[in-house]
C-alpha cells in the first residue's frame, strides 16, 4: 500500500500523510531562537515540523525542502521576527505571504483534519 501511495503521488504526499508537514527555514543563525519557538509551538499543536538551523543560504534550504517534497516551508527573517509572523510557501502554490503562527497552525490543522489533497 505504501508503494502504491508513493507512486501515485510521485513522492509528494498530501499534508496529512507527509512525515514532515512543515519545515521552518530561518534566513540566518540570528533568527534561530524564533525558529525554535515556532517549531515548539507547532509541535504542541500536533504538526510534524522540523527546523533547518544549518548555516546555509536560504535558497539552498528552500531547494532542499522542495526536493524533500515538504508541503509547507516557513521562512523567518528580520521582518517576520519583528512582526511575529511567518512567510509561508506551499508546495505547488508558491509564496502565500506573511501570516501569524496561529493562522498557519490553523491552516495546516484544517488541511490535515479534512484530509485534503
Question: What can be said about this structure in brief?
Answer:
The protein has 5 helices and 5 strands. It has helices spanning about 1-10, 30-45, 60-65, 80-85, 100-115; strands at about 20-25, 50, 70-75, 85-90, 95-100.
Characterise the protein shown here:
The chain is built from five helices and five strands. By secondary structure, the protein is of the alpha/beta class. It has a single domain, classed as 3-Layer(aba) Sandwich (Rossmann fold), CATH 3.40.50. The protein has a five-stranded mixed β-sheet with strand order 2-1-3-4-5, sandwiched between helices. It is globular, with a radius of gyration of 14 Å. 25% of the residues are buried.
What is the overall pLDDT average?
A: 92
Backbone CA Rg: 14 Å
- What's the total count of β strands? 5
Distance between termini? 17 Å
User: Spatial order of the strands in the main sheet?
Assistant: 2-1-3-4-5
Structural class: alpha/beta
**Which CATH top level class fits?**
Alpha Beta
Q: How would you spell out the order of helices and strands?
A: HEHEHEHEEH
- Strand fraction equals 15-25%
Number of domain modules: 1
**Poorly predicted tracts of residues:** none
Number of helices: 5
Q: Per the principal axes of the C-alpha atoms, what is the gross shape?
A: globular
- CATH 2nd-level architecture: 3-Layer(aba) Sandwich
Give the full name of the CATH homologous superfamily: Anticodon-binding domain
Largest sheet: 5 strands, mixed
Fold-level CATH name: Rossmann fold
How much helical structure, as a percent, in the residues?
40-55%
Amino acid at each position: 500500500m505504501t508503494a502504491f501511495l508513493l507512486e501515485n503521488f510521485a513522492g509528494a504526499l498530501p499534508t496529512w500523510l507527509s512525515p514532515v508537514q512543515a519545515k521552518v527555514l530561518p534566513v540566518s543563525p540570528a533568527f534561530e531562537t524564533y525558529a525554535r519557538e515556532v517549531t515548539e509551538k507547532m509541535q504542541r499543536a500536533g504538526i510534524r515540523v522540523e527546523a533547518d538551523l544549518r548555516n546555509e543560504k536560504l535558497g539552498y534550504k528552500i531547494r532542499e525542502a522542495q526536493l524533500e517534497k515538504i508541503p509547507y516551508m516557513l521562512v523567518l527573517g528580520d521582518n517576520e521576527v519583528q512582526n511575529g509572523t511567518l512567510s509561508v510557501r506551499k508546495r505547488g502554490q508558491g509564496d502565500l505571504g506573511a501570516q501569524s503562527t496561529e493562522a498557519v497552525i490553523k491552516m495546516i490543522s484544517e488541511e490535515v483534519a479534512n484530509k485534503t489533497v
